[in-house]
Amino acid sequence: MQTVAGIYSAQYPVELAYGKEANFMVSFLVVNWPKDFATGFVRDLSDRNLKSLVTQIHTSIGQTVNVKPEFDLLEALKKYR
């Protein structure tokens, strides 16, 4: 699990009331984070595999939300092919 922390990021776990939101951000300023993620976690950096990359968020009410990475992140990962 990638930890998230910082002044622009909600601290977790966070309890959300109906209609409320939280934002979590991962800093790319952490030394080697993109490289470690690309080569140690993703490993297969083919276009086909990157198109299927998602983050899953599991809520306390049993819902799962899939979020696709933004274009800039995908491009950063491709540098480690």
Fill in the keyword field for this structure.
single chain; 81 residues; alpha+beta; two-stranded antiparallel sheet; 3 helices; 2 strands; 10% strand; globular
Report on the structure:
Strands 1-2 form a two-stranded antiparallel sheet. It has a domain at 43-78. The protein is an alpha+beta fold. The protein has helices at 33-42, 47-51, 71-78; strands at residues 55-58, 64-67. A hairpin with a 5-residue loop joins strand 1 and strand 2 (64-67). It contains 3 helices and 2 strands. The chain is globular and about 40 Å long.
Layout of helices and strands:
Elements: H1 33-42, H2 47-51, E1 55-58, E2 64-67, H3 71-78
Antiparallel strand pairs: 1-2
Unreliable residue runs: none
Task: Output the helix-strand order.
Answer: HHEEH
- Helical stretch tally: 3
The fraction of residues in strands falls at: 5-15%
Mean pLDDT, to the nearest integer, reads 80
Short overview:
With 81 residues, the chain is α+β, with helices and mostly antiparallel strands.
